[in-house]
C-alpha cells in the first residue's frame, strides 16, 4: 500500500502542474483561472491567481529548468507565464486555431512546447528572440478529429499524439534554427517537420493519455474502450500488445519505470500495469486496496455508482456512487483526470507522483521500491 497525502484545494480540478522545486502547485479549478498554491507552515496557501484566459483552461505545464508556466484554453489561446519580481507576466502565443486548445506539454529541452486542439491540429511552439514572441508551426491534415493528448519523446524531436479518431500517431518536430544538429538521432534530423513516423490503428474508440517510457523504447496510450495499448520499438519495427480490463476507462498514464505503468481515470482508483520477463504487459492491481461494501449492493446502486463515476457527477450531490466511494476509503471520490511525476530530473524510476481530479483534490503518492516497483 503506497503512502498517500490528500489535499483538498478546490471544488473541481481540470489539470495541475508542479514548480521545479516541488514547493508550489499550479492548478485550474475548472474555470479560466490558474491558482498557484505554496506549502508553508504545514498548510497549502494560495499565493497567486493568474487571469488572462476567457474560457476554461484545459492544460498546464511548468518547465523544470526555465521556471515558465504554459497554459492552453478552450478560448483557442495559449500563454507563457514568466515570473518577474513578485508577479507572473503572460506572453501570448500565436496558435492560429479556430477550435479549443485541449492539452499542452513542454519538450524535454524546453525550447518548444506542443499544443493539441479540437481543430484536428497540433501546434509546435517556439520562441523568436528577434521579435520577442512565441510562434507556432502547425501539423495539419493528419488527424481526423480532436487531439486529446501529446507526449514528447526523450530525444526532443519525436512527438506522439492521441485523438478522438481512435488513432495514435508519431511525428517529427525538427525545426531548423531551434533544434541543434545533436538533437535526436541522425535519422530524425533527416525528417521534415510534421512528417508522420507511424500511425497506430489499434483502438476502436477515443484515445487518451499517451506516454513514452523513460528510455523512449515503449509507447503507451489508453482507449475509451477500457484498453491500454503498449507499442515497442515504435521507430523501427513496431510490435503492439493491448491489455483489456473490466473497469471504467482511463484518461491518463504514467511510466513509473520501463516495466510499470500507472493509469488513472473514471474508476477513481489508480490502476497498475506491469511487464513480465517475457515482455508481455498485464493488469497487476489497483493502487489502493478497496474496502468491502458494508451493505448489500443491488444492481441499481451498482449502476448508479458506475454512471456517477463515468459522467463526473458532483461529489456534493446525492449520488450512491460517490457515497460508496467515500465509504471505501479511496483517496479520490471522482474521476481522476491528470497524473504528474514528482521525481528529480534524470531519475529513471518515479517513486513519487501526484494526481488530480473532478473531486478537487490533489493526491500525492509515494511508492515503496521494495514492494511496489518491479526491478
UniProtKB/TrEMBL annotation:
Q: State the InterPro entries in the record.
A: ARPC1, WD40/YVTN_repeat-like_dom_sf, WD40_repeat_dom_sf, WD40_rpt
**In which broad location class does this protein mainly occur, judging by the first location in its UniProt entry?**
cytoplasm
Instruction: Give the GO cellular component terms, alphabetically.
Output: Arp2/3 protein complex
Q: From the Swiss-Prot or TrEMBL record, what is one GO molecular function term?
A: actin filament binding
Which keywords fit this entry according to its UniProt record?
A: Actin-binding, Cytoplasm, Cytoskeleton, Repeat, WD repeat
Where does it live in the cell? Cytoplasm, Cytoskeleton
**What transmembrane ranges does the database entry give?**
none
Ranges occupied by WD repeats? 50-82, 140-172
Q: At the top level of its lineage, which domain of life is listed?
A: Eukaryota
Q: Which SUPFAM superfamilies match?
A: WD40 repeat-like (SSF50978)
Q: Which Gene3D superfamilies match?
A: YVTN repeat-like/Quinoprotein amine dehydrogenase
Q: Which processes are annotated in GO (biological process)?
A: Arp2/3 complex-mediated actin nucleation
Task: Give a single Pfam family match.
Answer: WD40
* Known function: Functions as component of the Arp2/3 complex which is involved in regulation of actin polymerization and together with an activating nucleation-promoting factor (NPF) mediates the formation of branched actin networks. Functions as a component of the Arp2/3 complex which is involved in regulation of actin polymerization and together with an activating nucleation-promoting factor (NPF) mediates the formation of branched actin networks. Arp2/3 complex plays a critical role in the control of cell morphogenesis via the modulation of cell polarity development.
Q: How does it assemble?
A: Component of the Arp2/3 complex composed of ARP2, ARP3, ARPC1/p41-ARC, ARPC2/p34-ARC, ARPC3/p21-ARC, ARPC4/p20-ARC and ARPC5/p16-ARC.
The entry's family comment says: Belongs to the WD repeat ARPC1 family.
Its recorded name reads Actin-related protein 2/3 complex subunit
Whose protein is this, by species? Answer: Dendrobium nobile (Orchid)
Amino acid at each position: 500500500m503506497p503512502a498517500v497525502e490528500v489535499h483538498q484545494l478546490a471544488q473541481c480540478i481540470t489539470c495541475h502542474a508542479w514548480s521545479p522545486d516541488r514547493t508550489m502547485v499550479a492548478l485550474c479549478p475548472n474555470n479560466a483561472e490558474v491558482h498557484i498554491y505554496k506549502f508553508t507552515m504545514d498548510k497549502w496557501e494560495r499565493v497567486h491567481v493568474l487571469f488572462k484566459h476567457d474560457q476554461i483552461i484545459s492544460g498546464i505545464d511548468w518547465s523544470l529548468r526555465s521556471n515558465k508556466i504554459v497554459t492552453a484554453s478552450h478560448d483557442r489561446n495559449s500563454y507563457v507565464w514568466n515570473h518577474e519580481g513578485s508577479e507572473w507576466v503572460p506572453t501570448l502565443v500565436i496558435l492560429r486555431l479556430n477550435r479549443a486548445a485541449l492539452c499542452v506539454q513542454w519538450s524535454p529541452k524546453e525550447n518548444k512546447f506542443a499544443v493539441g486542439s479540437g481543430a484536428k491540429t497540433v501546434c509546435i511552439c517556439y520562441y523568436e528572440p528577434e521579435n520577442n514572441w512565441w510562434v507556432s508551426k502547425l501539423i495539419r491534415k493528419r488527424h481526423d478529429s480532436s487531439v486529446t493528448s501529446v507526449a514528447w519523446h526523450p530525444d526532443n524531436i519525436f512527438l506522439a499524439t492521441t485523438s478522438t479518431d481512435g488513432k495514435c500517431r508519431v511525428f517529427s518536430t525538427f525545426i531548423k534554427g531551434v533544434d541543434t544538429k545533436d538533437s535526436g538521432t541522425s535519422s530524425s534530423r533527416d525528417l521534415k517537420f510534421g512528417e508522420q513516423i507511424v500511425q497506430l490503428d489499434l483502438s476502436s474508440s477515443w484515445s487518451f493519455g499517451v506516454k513514452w517510457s523513460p528510455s523512449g523504447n515503449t509507447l503507451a496510450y489508453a482507449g475509451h474502450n477500457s484498453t491500454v495499448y503498449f507499442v515497442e520499438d515504435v521507430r523501427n519495427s513496431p510490435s503492439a500488445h493491448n491489455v483489456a480490463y473490466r473497469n471504467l476507462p482511463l484518461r491518463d498514464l504514467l511510466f513509473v519505470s520501463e516495466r510499470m505503468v500507472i493509469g488513472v481515470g473514471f474508476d477513481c482508483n489508480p490502476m497498475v500495469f506491469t511487464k513480465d520477463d517475457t515482455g508481455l504487459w498485464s493488469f497487476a492491481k489497483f493502487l489502493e486496496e478497496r474496502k468491502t461494501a458494508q451493505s448489500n449492493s443491488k444492481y441499481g446502486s451498482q449502476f448508479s455508482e458506475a454512471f456517477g463515476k463515468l459522467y463526473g457527477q458532483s461529489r456534493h450531490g446525492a449520488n450512491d456512487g460517490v457515497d460508496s466511494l467515500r465509504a471505501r476509503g479511496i483517496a479520490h471520490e471522482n474521476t481522476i483526470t491528470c497524473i504528474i511525476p514528482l521525481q528529480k530530473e534524470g531519475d529513471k524510476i518515479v517513486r513519487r507522483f501526484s494526481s488530480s481530479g473532478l473531486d478537487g483534490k490533489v493526491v500525492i503518492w509515494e511508492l515503496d521500491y521494495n514492494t511496489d516497483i518491479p526491478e
